């Protein structure tokens, strides 16, 4: 007599079941919630969600590119492309985001631990969205236009949105954070003459911006630590000429400083030991475009899974965006061919995560109408 799978699983210790399930991709775990009440309780538990996230980072095997088409007002303005263990990309899949509005587009503000912070200008609505499990949660309305940053506070085990606001009548800076409510931060912006010159990036428990006095090139980074709610100033590896563009990115958890020279090449520096300014290391220079024309910007997205010698990059031209593989040692590039990619898009890298499993469901009306 054959033993049913349910009977077999009953004889396995909970520790073994947990160890096996925590290594699976999120899409499988969402389906496996219906196996039994015990599995549903286990998968929805906070300890399991944290364990799964930790192993997702450690194994680096469950990653997806979430991309926003640069065309407002279309039914599907977001899509996903999975990244497999053998360094192959999956199919282009259209996904419906929770703040969809036919009148205006929804912007990606930032991404952290598989959660994407998005903002819709039409209703001035902000949401935290887990696109891989199609769950989201809207944030409370706040009178200031939109947040500048989003990250994880390991001290309180909470996710926070933060903005830096200049109150003209007070002549000073203030910050606001989110824990499903807004509050003022007491620490002061380091220098009143500095203005933010880049989008925020999250790394090592802190949010980071390039800052500079108006008209000058950024040579400092302001970091805001979510656990202590304190600012810190980090010096960039070099002061770029004023004719160059500079920006911050995060590659495999490490802070990157990028110098864009005359739309001809990008120099990329990596902070090998976070917080140690002497650890800034130049890692590569990428020149010209994948189709032989000049590019505006090359954004590093993630490294190859075997030896990390290749980097997936988003290469931005004036009228076209490409995904490319760049070989650091050979200094060669190869275009990633994925069918149905739009002409222009911007991307965010998402790790497989069960966060917001208890959030609201993203309802796709187009699927409902097709039933």
Automatic annotation (TrEMBL):
Annotated organism of origin: Quercus suber
Top-level taxonomy: Eukaryota, Viridiplantae, Streptophyta, Embryophyta, Tracheophyta
Cited PROSITE patterns: FBOX
SMART domains attached to this UniProt entry: FBOX (SM00256)
Gene: CPR1_10
Source taxon at top rank: Eukaryota
Domain F-box: 6-51
Protein name, as recorded: F-box protein cpr1
